[in-house]
Amino acid sequence: MLVLIAYDIADANRLRRVARLMQTYGARVQRSVFECRIAHKHLDELMNKINSVIKRREDRVHIYRLCDACQDRFAEYKCGHLLPDVDVWIF
What is the pLDDT at residue 47? Predict the structure, then answer.
C-alpha cells in the first residue's frame, strides 16, 4: 500500500531520529513528508517505532493510507529539489 506520512516534531533530537527512521521506510518528498510503499505488517512496525520516539503532547504525526483509486489520481509537480537538513541557530 502507499502511505503518506507527515510529521511536526518539537524537539530537534527527536526530529532527527524520526527523519532517520522514515528514511529506512520510504522516500522524502518534502522536509517532513515521506511516501512509503509498505506492507501492513511493516506499517504497524513503523508506527510502533515512531511511538517510541515521539512525545504525544508535543509532537504530531499524520499517516494517510492511499487507496488504489487515490493513487491513480495522484499528480506530482516538480520545481526544484530538496535542500539538505541543516541546523539553524538564532541568537
Answer: 95
Distance CA 88, CA 91 (A): 10
pLDDT of residue 91: 44
| Of 24, 19, 1, nearest in space to 9 by CA | 19
Q: How far is it, in rounded angstroms, from Cα 54 to Cα 75?
A: 31
Q: Count CA within 13 A, CB hemisphere, residue 70.
A: 8
Please tell me the total count of domains within the chain.
1
Provide the residue range defining the domain that includes 58. Answer: 2-69
According to DSSP, the β-strands at 2-8 and 33-37 are antiparallel
* pLDDT range class, residue 81, cuts 50, 70, 90: low
User: How confident is the prediction for the chain on average, in pLDDT?
Assistant: 86
Alpha carbons 32 and 26: distance in angstroms, whole number: 12
